[in-house]
Amino acid sequence: MVTTDDEYDWLSLQKQAHREFGRAVAAITDWDAPTPDAEWNVRDLVRHVVQEQQWVPQLLAGLTVPQAKRQLARLGDDLRAEWRLYSLAATAAWDAAKPDTLVSLSYETVPVTEYLREQTSDVTIHAWDLARATGADESLDPLLVEAVWTVFEPQKETLVASGLYASPVQLSGDAPLQSRLLAITGRDDRR
Q1: What's the Cα-to-Cα distance from 153 to each of 68, 71, 89, 134, rounded to whole Å?
Q2: How are beta strands 109-111 and 102-104 bridged, if at all?
Q3: In angstroms, rounded to a whole number, what is the distance separating the alpha carbons of residues 50 and 86?
Q4: Strands in the chain per DSSP E
Q5: Measured distance CA(97)–CA(1) in Å, rounded
Q6: How much is the pTM?
Q7: How far, in Å, CA of 101 to CA of 95, rounded?
Q8: 134: closest CA among 1, 9, 36?
Q9: Per-residue pLDDT tens for 62-82?
Q10: At residue 164, does pLDDT exceed 80?
């Protein structure tokens, strides 16, 4: 079982992020609706998050990115079912991962805890994206928001440079933490 040296139980947070994303998936009525990420509609966003979960068991088992890529199955059309399947598989892999596991990612090899934080953070942000796109409740679990903030806030300059997210939205320092977290990734929950 993966444990971390910080104050958060990231395995529990991973499960919470998946519950939040799963609730948003259940609320989908229009798979072609736009999302906060202008390049993706709802279908594209869900497909992206499901595909990210496909990688988890493979990479935690010690495969390299090219080896894992050969193991990935083509997703079917029922993305709700695919989400349930791969969310469960990823969660089981996280639960079974050894604390000293090193994970080979496309950009470097990282400790399993770093990959867990990254994956949990990504699913959390996309849970909000999907909630916004579907008109579902956009509020995220406060502990999840707080934990993901500790991942993204120290990396805000790197996030901007990476091009993975839109430019940060300027908010006042007294804005709610969820709003500030989303703003770091170029999302504006005031609109």
Answers
A1: 30, 34, 29, 27
A2: antiparallel
A3: 6
A4: 102-104, 109-111
A5: 5
A6: 0.93
A7: 12
A8: 36
A9: 999 999 999 899 999 999 999
A10: no
